[in-house]
Design brief:
By secondary structure, the protein is of the alpha+beta class. The chain has 18 helices and 17 strands. 40% of the residues lie in helices and 20% in strands. The relative contact order is 0.12.
Length: 467
């Protein structure tokens, strides 16, 4: 046997021996793709293969072969079941189902941890209540003794219970609350089989966008913080902290990509979920409904505490769970440090996803974001931004005269600052304040009574400004 053949034979034997000794490490991640504010903790990481970029390859991981498994769910409850069964190591869900997750692990003699926030609202936006499009109902107060459906054990369920409590109602006596998942609720709204439906991201916006519902309550009206975040099996996190940090660094990358090109990645999310890109941009575009904020702000810690309290109220837990024992910020802090981000500075930052743009009509910088209007023109890769409704509607009329098709127009709610589809909003026009937009008609009427002006719907304001 020649020396060259002997050398090749030796290399092959060493390679085979290395493979035989290599450990295959499973990383199983549960996602909620249609819950689009979880995109940075699931769909985008998966589709863009961002996790692979950060997985450790040295030290104890030098000979590891990674087996990355993704499982998609429509809600948090079945995801928790799979985590309990040992089939998932990480999973993203909202505060309330996350509390169920923690309690389920506790009852099984194990522990799960909230490791980060993905997206949320310190005031509660994202959850909401809708009614059929032709319903005369305009507010939650009009739903007493009516049938409201909600996905049980969801963050929307928690919001509904809190909203009812704020009205002084008994949820068991003053309402008929039934369990209904979003996929069934859409048909029920279209056929008037329920009086209302409460749901989480993105359904309180998606159903109105599709034309068969209208939103009559936004979670921000309860002023109760809400978020979606990631939980980890504590045993997995403690054994493989480097992998958890790698996952969080991938999530940070996903958030950066969304900030840079929200239209492009809204389209990608739409392709993978069936949720229209216009609704995705409502959340992930600048000035969106929620913020992409991974830090453990006091409001989000309170959301976990409130979820535990609600769990006990529902008699689903007999224990007083201490939220601080189940929130572990060590991993996200480490991910921020490795990504070169100041965690403590981010912890103090409460702004919406920033908008840095000039008015598409005047060219002047936009500075008053409550007045900002955004227009997505069909065939254009980027959304157009306007400083005021007056400027935007002038631009809209010019675009329509030029034969352009408009995908959607967005305005900012004057009270909460959240982004709204302009076609569903209400408006007040007066000389002092110009045009102000509102989610609900009674909010617009209240503003008009205090500040003067006329209350108009989208068609009427368009005609008034075109006039």
């Amino acid at each position: 046997m020649s020396l060259q053949i002997k050398f090749i034979t030796l290399l092959l034997s060493l390679s085979t021996a290395g493979l035989a000794q290599a450990e295959t490490l499973r990383i199983a991640i549960g996602t909620q793709d249609t819950t689009i504010n979880c995109a940075t903790g699931g769909l985008l990481i998966r589709e863009l293969k961002l996790l692979e970029k950060y997985l450790p390859r040295d030290g104890k991981y030098r000979d590891v072969q990674y087996d990355i498994q993704w499982r998609n769910f429509t809600s948090g409850a079945p995801l928790t079941n799979e985590m309990l069964a040992g089939k998932l190591d990480l999973g993203s869900m909202a505060d309330f189902p996350g509390a169920f997750n923690v309690e389920a692990f506790r009852k099984a003699g194990r522990k799960s941890l909230f490791i980060n926030v993905l997206s949320g609202s310190t005031t509660g936006s994202g959850n909401g209540i809708v009614v059929p499009k032709d319903s005369p109902v305009q507010s939650l107060q009009q739903l007493k003794a009516k049938t409201i459906s909600v996905p049980f054990a969801s963050t929307a369920h928690g919001m509904l219970l809190r909203a009812v409590a704020q009205l002084g109602w008994n949820p068991e006596a003053d309402l008929n609350i039934i369990a209904q998942v979003p996929e069934i609720a859409g048909a029920a709204l279209q056929t008037n089989k329920v009086d209302a439906h409460a749901d989480f991201v993105p359904f309180a916006e998606l159903f109105p966008y599709r034309g068969y519902a209208k939103k009559i309550y936004d979670g921000s009206q309860s002023n109760t913080p809400t978020f979606h975040g990631t939980l980890a099996d504590a045993a997995f996190a403690e054994k493989y902290p480097e992998i958890v940090i790698a996952f969080l660094r991938a999530a940070i990358d996903a958030a950066d990509l969304l900030s840079t090109e929200p239209e492009k990645y809204s389209e990608l999310i739409a392709e993978n979920t069936g949720v229209e890109a216009e609704v995705v941009y409502l959340f992930h575009g600048p000035l969106g409904v929620q913020t992409r904020d991974f830090t453990w702000k006091p409001e989000y810690r309170q959301a976990v505490k409130t979820a535990f309290e609600t769990l006990k109220f529902l008699k689903r837990s007999s224990s007083d769970l201490d939220a601080d024992q189940f929130i572990d910020d060590r991993y996200i802090r480490a991910a921020y440090k490795q990504s070169g981000i100041d965690y403590d500075a981010s912890l103090k930052q409460y702004r919406q996803s920033p908008l840095s743009a000039n008015d598409a009509g005047t060219g002047k910088a936009i500075t008053d974001f409550k007045k900002a209007v955004q227009v997505w023109v069909a065939g254009e890769a980027r959304v157009r931004h306007y400083a005021t409704a007056e400027s935007a509607f002038a631009g809209l009329n010019a675009l329509k005269k030029a034969g352009k098709q408009i995908r959607i127009v967005y305005v900012q709610d004057n009270n909460s600052g959240i982004k709204l589809p302009a076609a569903d909003a209400w408006y007040v026009q007066n000389q002092k304040d110009g045009v102000s937009a509102f989610l609900l008609k009674d909010q617009a009427e209240d503003w008009a009574n205090k500040h003067g002006g006329s209350v108009l719907d989208f068609v009427a304001i368009n005609q008034a400004l075109a006039g």
